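Usage

Read records sequentially. Each one opens with the input sequence:
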Amino acid sequence: MNKKYRLIFSTIKAYLLLTLVIGLLYPAAVWTVGRIWSDNADGSMIEDSDGRIRGSSLIAQEVTEPGFFHPRPSAAGDDGYDAMSSSASNSSPYDEEFQAEVEQRRREVADREGIDPQLVPIEAITASGSGLDPHISEGYALLQAPRVARETNLPESEIERLISVNSETAMTEQTSRDGSRLVNVVKLNAALANARDAQAPQPARQSQ
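and closes with the structure output:
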């Protein structure tokens, strides 16, 4: 076999080998690993008691109806919480427009929760770096508990239990100094919706 044909044969072998490894084996391995940890691979979606997708535990959601816990504000996108526009406001803390926005948020949170404006935590009035952080501190969640209990007609003790169940030890730069626990608001609100639906009166069955 002359040099020309050896080169052609080697090229074909390399092509077939790379096709097998990159085109078949590698995608199959990635798919298999994705199925083993399917929750992460599928976006960490949260389902309600009826099996409907309520959102991702990785991305905060805007709260537009009563009876739910509020996450941190968001500067991601024009209306916030836009996963395609993850970002912070990048405003200087000395910017007058930013300061006015923070003070407006402080008044709104104080009115909503029925507390003194000075007791509003900083996380309730400033956005996270991504604008999508689904976590708040356990303290901020407990601050919202009385309002949520009133709006859902659930006992406050049950609300506090749900907060505790959905709390996790935070080991991030932000909170590792005191070992504070964070609460995933998306998971908490999903659990709250299930608890609220469970206590709702069921329609009476008609006798045949």
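Summary fields computed downstream for this record:
- The chain has a mean pLDDT of 81.
- DSSP finds six helices and five strands in the chain.
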